[in-house]
Every structure is written in structure tokens, then in C-alpha cells.
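hey can u check if this looks right to u? its 530 residues, i copy pasted from the old doc so theres a chance i mangled smth
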Amino acid sequence: MNDMTMNRRTVLLAGSASLLAGLMPQMTLAQSNNAARMNVIAFPEPPTLFIGLDQNGSTQTVSGKIYESLLSYDFDFTPRPGLAESWDVSEDGLTYTFHLVKTAKWHDGEPFTADDVVFTTKEFLMEVHPRARGIFQNCETIEAVDEHTVRFTLKQPFAPFLMGFEMSTAPMIPAHLYRGTDFRTNPNNNKPIGTGPFKLAEWNRGSYIRLEKNPDYHGEGEPHLDEIIFQILPDAGARAVAIEQGQVQQAQFFDIEMFDIQRLSELGNIQLITKGYEFYAPVARIEFNTRVEPFNDKRFRQAICHALDKQLFADAIFFGLGKPATGPISNRTRFYDADVKPYDYDLEKAAALLDEMGLKPDANGVRRTVKFLRLPWGETWARFAELVQQQLALIGIKVEIEPADPASWTSKYANWEFEMTSNYPYQFGDPALGVSRFFVSSNIRKGVAYSNCTGYENPEVDALFEKGATATSDADRQAAYSAAQKILVEDVPMAWLVEVDFPTLLDKGYEDVVVSAIGVNETYRKARKA
């Protein structure tokens, strides 16, 4: 690092420290006693805390302490109790019976019962939650056997059904507050009522969100923390300084710019944790709009794959927090298969494919100009786009980067108004839940983000994903998903680059924080000061 870079960094940190000093007194007004509390970064500020209607990343992190689902999941995806204390599955894989916690209450004091589960999964989620709809539409019936028992009977086997009760996929919603209302305009959306270990105490918009301990929580002796205060810090430098100065005890996902992770993790009081993201397992990738030229030609997409140095992306963009990807399924997700066509970094192969297409360089060495819609989630993705631009220039592809804010990016992506863009969506532990949605032709839905926005269609892939979801043995599921991966890596509707290891920076004074595959989006019922 040269002196100019050092000086610039010093100025930025000084400015961030000044900004932080101005914000912190406001954010700590509620902190006047010696209660067991934890300060966590919330970035960006959640648009809402009602997880039923919005599954934004920051919404999940905060609302995961307010709302619960029936299950949670160990690091190897083994289901474990949540609002269901036990469950039974019939031998034919068609009937799932959940035995609910009998002492759970909503934050307004009303009891949580089987009626809430039936309402949530049969009515609420089917109307407003596309991912949950894809799971519960497999049910023939959803019924309350008694006040604390719910039975789901499927039309046909759906192997990952038990994986569908993660908090953001199937958050339990209070039937007594929502039944018979317009779910999207219900006034309770602004005052979240869950069953979780923490309740909303106050939200000072632009400054902090304070959650307080739920004294009626069903977990005996839980939670151990009295308060969790989510500090809203829009400035990247301020977030780094907050960790460095101990003003916050936790940062997660991309809260801290990747180039700062290692430095902060070397502070004596901070630990770097990459566990707890198994359920999400993102693969950083480039999505191609296969409807437009030249992206409708597989050779052009393959040329791009050969021209991008995956290891360089892992090292220079994600600073070693990740590894080169091989295809659409992360190695942390079930049914991954590494035995697929490799795209080694080879500029000669890339150029040969472009030559074969008849894309010859002009006098300036440019074969084709394309547009790259930049993902707006921080500096990491700006650098990602710039590296794509630099690398593709080496084979004569001129990349014009199109900036976007979150709203415009989402709109353009959902409405297919892009040629290339970057993305890193979650996989949710099973290809049927988080992967197939991007490739099956039935999910080509204009206006719906995180669906099959590339326009990829292949009947064989459709059939393989269907078999993978409905087969009753893991061997048959693996065979279907392995075949699908091979075809997709040959067709490359996307360029899969890096399996990202999200970082959590955590103060060593806290323990039992990251305890499941859902990690920082968990309830924190077990989290405590060491």
C-alpha cells in the first residue's frame, strides 16, 4: 500500500469516526443500564420488519429474532425443533405431522396454536410469498388435528418438504390479526407481532432498531440477552470504525467491505466466523439474457466463461473469502457434483469461440460491445463489474457498465431489461428450493425478480429438476441433479464464478451466537455474553 493510499485511508477513517461520533449518542439513548445487550450492524436499513411480506437480507437478520418457524437446521441441514417440538413423516413420504410447542405465545399474549400454522401455510403464504407457494402448493390438505398438532398431506412426494420451514421461507403469522384482512395493507405490518425471543421496543428510523427480551418466551430460561440494538450505519467507513472501536459487537454478510475483513478480524477482541451461512451458500455469478444477441449463442457465453479468471475473482474481489465455483449448485448445498465441464482460464479458447461465431476484431480490437447492469449492493459489486470489464476487454469484448440503485436494478432485472448482470441469490439448502427456480421454464415470469430471468429453456432440465424434487431416495435425487448440472454447465445461461463465504465479525465477549445453518438470521435465543 503506497503513501497516497494510506493517506486517503486515514482521511476516510477520520471522516467515518467523526460521522460515527455524531450518530452514536442518538443510537444509545436507550442504553442507560447494565443490561446484557448486543449491538449489531443493520445495513441497509430494513424497509420493513414484517418478514411475511419482505425477505430482504437485512429484514431477515432483524426479524429472525421476532418471528419463528416450525423448524431450524443444524450445519448439516438436519432439522431441529423450533415452534414444533417434534414431527413424524409417513413411510410413503406423503404425510408430515408436526407436534407444536404448547407454551408459545404471540407477543400480544394470545396463544400460538395449530390454527396459526394452517392459516399461515394454507392462506397467507400462498397469497404473498412465491418461494413458500412453491413448497405448499404440493399439499393436498393442511389441517389442524388438535390445538397443538398439524398434519400436511402431499399430493405426491416432495423430498425437500422438511427444508421449507426456515424462518424467512415459512414465518408463522398470527391468524387472529391477519385472517380476513388485506395482508399487504394490514396495520399490524408496521408493528410486528411474532413468537420469537425478542420484541420490537422502538425503531428510530435512520438511526437504530431496539429489540427487547420477550419475558413470555416459550424457551425455558431464554433468551439470555436483554436487548439487541441494530445500529443503522449507511457509511462503510463508519461501519468499520464501529467494529474497530467496539461500538458494535457484530457485522455480517457484506456489512464490512471485503478488503477490510482480514484487518478487523486480527483485532484482539474480534473473531471471524464463516459458519452459519450454509443454508444460503451463495454463488457469485453473471447472468446472461439469452433472449438477446449475441447472448443467445452458447459459444458467446462459453467464451466469456473461459475469459474470466475465477481464482482472481476469489482473491481480488472477495479477498480469499470464497473458492472458484464449478456450476449452479454450491458445494455446501445438497446434491452438488463437481464432475462437470471445466472452464479453465484460457484466452485462446475464448477467442477461438468468438472467431467461430464470426465476431472479428475491428481496428480498435473490439469484437462486440455489451452492457453490464451493475449490482448496487456496495463497493464489492462495483469492483466485480470493473474486473469483468477488464478481463473481457482482453478478448475484444467491450463492456459498458450501467449503474443502478436497488429499486432500478430490481426492476430492470425482473423485467429482462439487461444483457449481463451479477447476482448471488441464496440456495436454501436444497436445489429444489433455491436453484431450480432460476432454470425451469415454468418460472419464466416477467416482472418477478429472482425467477428465471435469463430466459433459459430446456425440457430435459425441466424434467430433471422435477425428478430431483419428487424422487424419494437420495440416490435418485443425486442422479437427477448431477445430470442437470452437467447440462447447465454446458449451456452456461450463467457464468458461475465464486462460492462466497460470507463473513461474520463477532466480539469474543459473546457466545452461542452462530449455532445453525441460518447463522445470524437465527432467533438468538441462545446468544449470551461470555
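DSSP finds 15 helices and 21 strands in the chain.
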